[in-house]
């Protein structure tokens, strides 16, 4: 009986560790989620290239990028980053069933933009800079 209990507890722990909890970034980082069902999707690859051109801009705005592919994810834009298991992240955000989606999530944890096409870095930066907390950051740094 103890063995069965042990395996049940182990299964629950592993299962909960596999689901990615984005709330840990609440009030710390803005997030960009890139969801795709095909790593060679044109919008996905174009969006990655677009974001790579503005690493300094994203860092300045406290932005973290999650690449989400079905049941796994990568944090950041580093090509050598390892995929980690993320069982629920794709399922939670893939509400439209489109081959590619981008989400921009503010410091408050709310979705600020959702689209299924590649978004220019300028549009992303402008959107973030228009957010009240970002405006406060800019004012306090001047």
Strand order of the biggest β-sheet: 4-3-2-1-5-6
What sequence of helices (H) and strands (E) makes up the elements?
HEHHEEEHEEHH
- Report strand %: 15-25%
What ranges have pLDDT less than 50 throughout 5 or more consecutive residues?
A: 4-19
How is the quaternary structure best described?
A: single chain
Global shape: globular
Number of helices: 6
- Classify the helix fraction into a percent range: 40-55%
C-alpha Rg (nearest Å):
17 Å
Question: Describe the biggest sheet?
Answer: 6 strands, mixed
- Counted beta strands: 6
The pLDDT mean sits at 86
Distance between the termini: 65 Å
Structural class: alpha+beta
Identify the notable features of this structure and list them briefly.
single chain, alpha+beta, 6-stranded mixed β-sheet, 22% strand, globular
Task: Draw up the topology in text.
Blueprint: H1 2-18, E1 30-36, H2 42-52, H3 55-60, E2 63-69, E3 72-75, E4 84-85, H4 89-93, E5 100-105, E6 111-115, H5 121-129, H6 132-141
Parallel strand pairs: 1-2
Antiparallel strand pairs: 1-5, 2-3, 3-4, 5-6
Give a concise summary.
Helices cover 41% and strands 22% of the residues. It is of the alpha+beta class and 142 residues long.
How would you characterize this protein structure?
The protein has 142 residues and is α+β, with helices and mostly antiparallel strands. The protein is built from six helices and six strands. Helices cover 41% and strands 22% of the residues. It has a six-stranded mixed sheet with strand order 4-3-2-1-5-6.
């Amino acid at each position: 009986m103890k063995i069965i209990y042990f395996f049940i507890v182990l299964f629950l722990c592993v299962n909960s560790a596999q689901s990615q909890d984005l709330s840990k970034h609440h009030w710390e980082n803005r997030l960009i989620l890139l969801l795709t069902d095909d790593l060679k999707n044109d919008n996905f690859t174009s969006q990655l290239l677009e974001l790579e051109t503005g690493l300094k801009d994203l860092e300045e705005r406290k932005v973290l990028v999650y690449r989400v592919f079905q049941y796994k994810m990568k944090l950041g834009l580093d090509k050598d980053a390892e995929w980690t298991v993320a069982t629920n992240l794709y399922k939670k955000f893939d509400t439209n069933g489109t081959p590619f989606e981008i989400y921009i999530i503010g410091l408050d944890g709310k979705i600020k933009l959702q689209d299924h096409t590649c978004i220019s870095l300028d549009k992303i930066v402008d959107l973030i800079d228009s957010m009240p907390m970002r405006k406060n950051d800019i004012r306090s740094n001047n």
